[in-house]
Structures are given as structure tokens and as C-alpha cells.
Here is the input.
Amino acid sequence: MPHSAARGTLEGMTPPIVVHPPSADGGRQVTAHSQLLGLAHSREDVAEFLRDVGLPPERVQLDDPDLIEWRGGGPDIWH
Here is the structure.
């Protein structure tokens, strides 16, 4: 189950969304302009965090480099 530390809005904000390298437990922190959105354990968690902060579902494209910067591996790396 994902843990979301901050629920707000991305409206008016521009990327980047950053998915940080996997931690020892396999989760990856997700931030938007240095604001922690949560700890993701899957692609679905990342998409959920982005929807939770107001990004329209049609804009949630996890492979869009203009939207998301994947550090320490792409969207298939969780450990």
C-alpha cells in the first residue's frame, strides 16, 4: 500500500516530477518540485500520487520525460 505524505495540487506547477532511486526496502520516493508526494512501490503508486494531487488522468504518462524524471532506473526498477 502506498504512503502519501502530502496531498495538494500540481495545478500551475511545471515538471519535473522526480521518482528517486529505490531504497533498501524497494520503495521509491516521489517528489514534485521537492515536495514529497509519497513512497511508491509500483508504477501504479506513482500514477495514483499524481492523480491525488490533481493531475488529470489523461496527463499521467509515466514514460513522458517532460513530466517525470526517473533516477536510479526507469519505471520497471523497484529494488
Observations:
- The longest strand covers residues 35-40.
- Helices lie at 43-52.
- Strands lie at 17-19, 28-32, 35-40, 68-70.
- The radius of gyration is 11 Å.
